[in-house]
């Protein structure tokens, strides 16, 4: 278990009770050592029951997490890039914090704009020039 709050941003801190870590055997580098040590970390974070996240952030988090979030609202992050448990644990927590930080940013609403009169005029002039150019083309007549 985590013994301290995970600080995501100034306004968001995750309670240690919302995060569950388990250690599993990692594939990859490590030689014979990988057969006897559980250095990979599988972090589970229950986003649906977390009181630090608003519903708005949860909905954005669900979209960003994709396959990493199951139907119960639990995000599962597996970290096995490093050879030590401590580094993998830090990597998993950093990835969770980055994901929540990204979800906390409210997307800017798009303001619809219209083309200017000048842009419309340039477009019409270009179309007219193209039309005239094509009109001057014609069939080639063979003179016998």
Would you summarize the structure shown here?
By secondary structure, this protein is α+β, with helices and mostly antiparallel strands. 35% of the residues lie in helices and 16% in strands.
How does this model look, in words?
By secondary structure, the chain is an alpha+beta fold. The protein has helices at residues 55-65, 85-104, 117-136; strands at residues 6-7, 13-14, 19-24, 40-46, 74-79. The strands form two sheets. Strands 3-4-5 form a three-stranded antiparallel sheet, covered by helices on one side. A hairpin with a 5-residue loop joins β1 and β2. α1 packs across α2. The radius of gyration is 29 Å and the shape is elongated. The mean pLDDT is 84.
Which helices and strands, and how do they pair?
Layout: E1 6-7, E2 13-14, E3 19-24, E4 40-46, H1 55-65, E5 74-79, H2 85-104, H3 117-136
Antiparallel strand pairs: 1-2, 3-4, 4-5
């Amino acid at each position: 278990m985590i013994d301290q709050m995970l600080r995501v941003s100034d306004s968001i801190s995750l309670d240690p009770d919302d995060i569950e870590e388990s250690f599993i055997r990692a594939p990859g580098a490590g030689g014979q050592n990988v057969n006897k040590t559980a250095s990979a970390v599988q972090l589970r974070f229950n986003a649906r029951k977390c009181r630090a996240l608003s519903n708005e952030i949860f909905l954005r988090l669900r979209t960003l997490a994709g396959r990493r979030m199951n139907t119960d609202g639990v995000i599962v992050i597996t970290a096995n890039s490093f050879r030590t448990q401590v580094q993998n644990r830090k990597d998993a927590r950093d990835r969770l914090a980055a994901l929540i930080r990204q979800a906390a940013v409210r997307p800017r609403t798009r303001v619809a704009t219209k083309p200017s009169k000048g842009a419309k005029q340039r477009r019409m002039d270009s179309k007219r020039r193209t039309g005239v150019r094509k009109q001057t083309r014609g069939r080639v007549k063979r003179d016998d």
